[in-house]
Amino acid sequence: MFESTISRTRAALLALAATAALLAAGSVLAAPASAASRAAAPADGRPVCVTVLAPLKVGQEFSEVLSRRCGASEQAALAATREAGVTASVQIFTLIEHANYGGAYDHVYGGAWCDAAGYGINPGWYEWRLSSFLPDGGCYYTTLTNHSGASRRFNGDTPSLPSGFNDNAAKIRTTA
C-alpha cells in the first residue's frame, strides 16, 4: 500500500511536470495524464470512449452521466466532450473490455477527485464485456456487483476479473 501511494504520487508529479511543460509550449490539455493512460489504446481500430459522471448524491445508486463521447483516441474523445460543453476534470477509472488491458476502452471522468461517496455507474456496453479496469483520481476501492447480486471489492489495478465477475458487471461503485 505504501509503495502504491509512492508510485501514485510519483506519477502525479510527473504528470504535473509534463502538463506544465506543454502549457509553457502553448499546448492545451483537457486532463492530466493518469495511471489509465499507461495502458496502450486499442490497436484494432476500436473507438476509445470518454464518459463524464457527476459525483453521487445522497440516496443515489448511480451517478448522473454528463457526457459520453467516443473517438479514435482518448484525446479525440476528450475534444468531442469539450465541444459538447462538458469538462472532464479528473479521470477516476478506465473500463477495459478484455483481460490484461486489451480491447475497447472507456475512460471515465468525474467532476472531482474521489471521496467516501465516490461514483456509481451502470457499465452499459461493458455490462457483459468488462474484464479489467484501472482506478485513478483517488478512487482506490472499486466494488463490482454482478447480475446474481454478489459483490466484490477490488483495490488498485485489476488486469483480470475473477470468475463470476468477468463479463458480468451489473453495477460499479468506486470510492476513496
Helix-residue proportion: 10-25%
Shape type: globular
Based on secondary structure, the structural category is: alpha+beta
Strand content: 25-35%
Count of DSSP helices?
2
Total E-strand runs: 9
Arithmetic mean of pLDDT: 81
How are helices and strands ordered from N to C? HEEHEEEEEEE
Radius of gyration: 15 Å
Biggest sheet character: 5 strands, mixed
Spatial order of the strands forming the largest sheet:
2-1-4-3-6
Low-confidence stretches: 1-40
Q: For the terminal residues, how far apart are their CA atoms? A: 14 Å
Give an account of the 3D structure.
The structure is a single chain. The chain has about 180 residues and is α+β, with helices and mostly antiparallel strands. The protein contains two helices and nine strands; from the N terminus they run αββαβββββββ. The strands form two sheets. Strands 2-1-4-3-6 form a five-stranded mixed β-sheet, with helices on one face. A hairpin with a 5-residue loop joins strand 7 and strand 8. The N terminus is likely disordered.
List the main descriptive attributes of the protein structure presented here:
single chain, 176 residues, alpha+beta, five-stranded mixed sheet, four-stranded antiparallel sheet, 30% strand, globular, disordered N terminus
